[in-house]
Amino acid sequence: MKGLDLSRKFYIECGAPMLNEQFDSALPYLAVGLVGSGSECLGFDDEVSQDHDFEPAFCVFVPDEIDSKTCFELERAYSKLPRAFLGFERSTVNTGRHGVIRIGDFFEAKTGRRNGELSLSDWFSVPEYSLKEATNGEVFFDNYGLFTEIRKRLSYFPEDIRLKKLAGNLFLMGQAGRYNYSRCIERKDSAAAQMAVFEFVKSALSAIFLLNKTYAPYYKWSFCALNELKCLSELSQPLEYLISSGNSADEAENKARIIEEVCASILAQLKVTGLVKSQGGDVQTCAQTVNNLIKDISIRNLHILAAV
Q1: Structural contact between residues 300 and 291, judged by C-beta atoms closer than 8 angstroms
Q2: Which residues pair with residue 88 across a beta bridge?
Q3: Quick one: residue 52, left, alpha or beta (phi over 0 = left, psi -120 to 50 = alpha)?
Q4: What gap in Å lies between CA 172 and CA 196, rounded to an integer?
Q5: What sign for the dihedral angle of Cα 33, 34, 35, 36?
Q6: Between 249-272 and 283-291, two packed helices, what is the crossing angle to 10 degrees?
Q7: How high is the pLDDT of residue 50?
Q8: Count of alpha carbons within 13 Å of 229, Cβ hemisphere only?
Q9: Taking a C-beta distance cutoff of 8 angstroms, is the pair 243, 176 a contact?
Q10: Which three-class secondary structure string do you get for 159-205?
């Protein structure tokens, strides 16, 4: 069973009756769901995931208006919910991922801001995976609306930030993949060549998520998430090959070809989305084209790699 399904069932069968019976006065201010860290919040959990932090659990998000006494009573009632549910055991250790959580505390931990109102520098500095964790999972209900309001505020990058990040990653794709990889191969420096490939794949993945207008998750879930994207998900296999193969003469030749094909696919998508007028040119040229589309001159004039 997926963790999100387990959480939802546990809430419906055990959590909802408890909240309805014991906290009718606080209920109008609460939000409940499973959001935050953990593969189950992304839907990527499997049997391996169940070796840690996998349990029948949910989050009760409370605003600052809820007094400490009520929070304590909520925490105590939550701790008394059944320890076993559908064959799964609840942990006796509070990891901070589940249970009663202040809304402000949750978003401050993920973004540095209790209300989710990020400044320009915040958008540049908050890790993308952390923004993903602030907006992933499922909210089962939100009577007060504050939790959902902040999630909407954080739902995706402002367009100028997206374009700056996209421009920087396109530039790095050209630098690492189309330039440095071949030079490292010529020097017979296989280790450096493989590092160049890693940088290329990392930047290509970032560019793909940015073109899909969805946050990239923590790195170990990148390929799982890539396979579910609407566009360019077909690049999963060639990108995986690049980082999992060696650098013999035949492999290097094949990898150089794949790098060009990945670049071509991403350039084609840039044209489809209207970010470039022509599919011609290389990714570094297109990086500057994308950067020039940024409306805020202060962002546009920053170094092209400022957002990566």
Answers
A1: yes
A2: 85
A3: beta
A4: 10
A5: positive
A6: 30
A7: 66
A8: 26
A9: no
A10: HHHHHHHHHHHHHHHHHHHHHHHHHHHHCCCHHHHHHHHHHHHHHHH
- Distance, in Å, from the CA atom of 242 to the CA atom of 249, rounded to the nearest integer, reads 14
Neighbours of 204 (CB within 10 A): 28
Q: Kindly indicate the confidence band of residue 210, based on its pLDDT and cuts at 50, 70 and 90.
A: very high
Percent of the chain as helix, strand, coil, to the nearest 5: 60, 5, 35
149: Cβ contacts below 8 Å, ≥ 6 apart: none
Vertex 281: Cα angle to 276 and 286 (nearest 5)? 45
Separation between Cα atoms, residue 172 and residue 162, nearest integer Å: 15
**CB neighbours of 77 closer than 8 A, spacing ≥ 6?**
18, 22, 23
Which tokens belong to 163? 């374009």
Could you tell me the end-to-end alpha-carbon distance of the chain, in angstroms, rounded to an integer?
A: 37
Q: Are strands 31-34 and 138-142 parallel, antiparallel or unpaired?
A: antiparallel
Burial 123-158 (b: 16+ CB within 10 A, else e): bbebebbbbbbbbbbeebebebebbeebbebbeebe
Q: How much is the average pLDDT of 81-87?
A: 93
Mean pLDDT of 131-146: 97
For 108, counting Cβ atoms within 10 Å of its Cβ (0-12 exposed, 13-18 middle, 19+ buried), the class is: middle
Question: Mind listing the pLDDT tens digit for each residue in 150-191?
Answer: 999 999 999 999 999 999 999 999 999 989 999 999 999 999
pTM score, two decimals? Answer: 0.93
Q: What is the largest CA-CA distance in the chain?
A: 72
| Residue 114, C-beta contacts closer than 8 angstroms, at least 6 positions apart | 103, 104, 105, 107, 108
